[in-house]
Amino acid sequence: MDFFISSIKEGFQLKAAVLEGREKLVIREIETPQCAGGEVLVKLEACGICRTDMKCYLIGQRDLKLPRILGHEIAGTVFAIGEGVKNVVPGSRVQVHPGIFCGECHYCRQGLDNMCDSIKIMGFNYDGGFAEYLRVPLQGVQNGILNEIPLGLSLVEASMTEPLACSLNMQQSLGVQSPDTVLVVGGGRLGILNAKLARLRGAQKIILLEQDLGRLVGAANYEFDYCINPLKTSAEKEIRMLTNGMGVDVAIPCCPGPEAVSISLNVMAKRGRFGFFSGLITEDFSRIDFNLIHYREITAVGAYGCSLEHSRQALQLLGEGAIQVNDMISGILPLEEVEQGICRVKELKGLSLVINFLDS
Ligand SMILES: [Zn+2]
Ligand SMILES: [Zn+2]
């Protein structure tokens, strides 16, 4: 039996922020998605605005087909379940892992489901979280992508699960541990989340490189031990000094500029570990000295998104209070202001902006 579904009348409209074209985000009423057998309908309550949303809005993306509802940092309440759904209870508060993977390919079988050969992502290949309701497809429900939010954790905080899970993916691959010295480039929310996580994992010194003055000032409130403005001083010299001439054990550029990569490689210790966490917005790699990877025996690893297991672990860390994100939420916006929120992300104004549906 469909549960609650009778309460959604035929033709019931819902509000959604629909990306219809480049820089064309329209708030409009759309038909409420129906919840077929095996599917789940989630009433959305919080959805973070991410740089990826901004990229889709400004320049589009190869696989993005319009019109599309963006938003992949999703938390809400289960509103209805379709026939046959056993693992989800109506009324429960859930974080929605955005990746819908096949569960059968070479990568899925190893738990590397973010590398699935046929992955589809909500807010990208499917509609996402900038709407009042979200239909979770059968494959996602079966995979268990609806993660119950621990008691005491707010839906807004739970919407930070996905970016934390991406950071977890990165740092597990890098093996961040005590007594590492970790360099983070970029003091945006991913930079801060990486600093929080590195501290939790035992990093002894955490150094931030950031050239935006506002962010540099703000970063002092977080887990960074040293904040350096590369426009003001020789960052390389300073980092050498802070590490007794050795350089850093781990570098995680959390921004898309190629200079973040070049400076990080320059200040790495021998046998250091380098994380390709952000895609680079350049085709000009001429200033990056990749030979340093060879001479210093640096390990370079990539991280792209997060697996379902990373999401679950991240949600648990948030639930236990091991990682606190309350101090990072800089703005709660109604759905009608998604576009303004995206522009604020572009202008580096505000750290973590979350769309909240309760007040809209
Ligand atoms: Zn994101
Ligand atoms: Zn797969």
Can you tell me about this structure?
This protein is an alpha/beta fold and 360 residues long. It folds into two domains: 5-160 and 325-356, Quinone Oxidoreductase, Chain A, domain 1, CATH 3.90.180.10; 164-302, Rossmann fold. The chain has helices at residues 51-59, 138-143, 155-158, 161-174, 189-200, 213-219, 235-242, 258-266, 291-295, 308-320, 338-346; strands at residues 13-21, 24-31, 40-48, 68-69, 73-81, 93-96, 99-100, 120-121, 133-136, 146-148, 181-185, 205-209, 226-228, 248-253, 268-276, 299-302, 329-333, 352-356. The strands form four sheets. Strands 3, 5, 6, 9, 10, 17 and 18 form a seven-stranded mixed beta sheet that branches. The structure holds zinc ion (ZN) (2 copies).
Largest sheet report: 7 strands, mixed
The assigned structural class equals alpha/beta
Tally of separate helices: 11
CATH topology description of the largest domain: Quinone Oxidoreductase, Chain A, domain 1
At CATH's second level, what is the architecture of the largest domain?
A: Alpha-Beta Complex
Order of helices and strands: EEEHEEEEEEHEHHEHEHEHEHEHEHEHE
In which range does the helix fraction lie? 25-40%
Hetero groups:
zinc ion
Using only C-alpha atoms, the radius of gyration works out to 21 Å
User: Tell me, what's the shape?
Assistant: globular
What is the fold's blueprint, element by element?
Blueprint: E1 13-21, E2 24-31, E3 40-48, H1 51-59, E4 68-69, E5 73-81, E6 93-96, E7 99-100, E8 120-121, E9 133-136, H2 138-143, E10 146-148, H3 155-158, H4 161-174, E11 181-185, H5 189-200, E12 205-209, H6 213-219, E13 226-228, H7 235-242, E14 248-253, H8 258-266, E15 268-276, H9 291-295, E16 299-302, H10 308-320, E17 329-333, H11 338-346, E18 352-356
Parallel strand pairs: 11-12, 11-14, 12-13, 14-15, 15-16, 17-18
Antiparallel strand pairs: 1-2, 1-4, 3-5, 3-9, 3-18, 5-6, 6-10, 7-8
Bound molecules: zinc ion (ZN) (2 copies).
One zinc ion is lined by residues 50, 52, 72-73, 162-163.
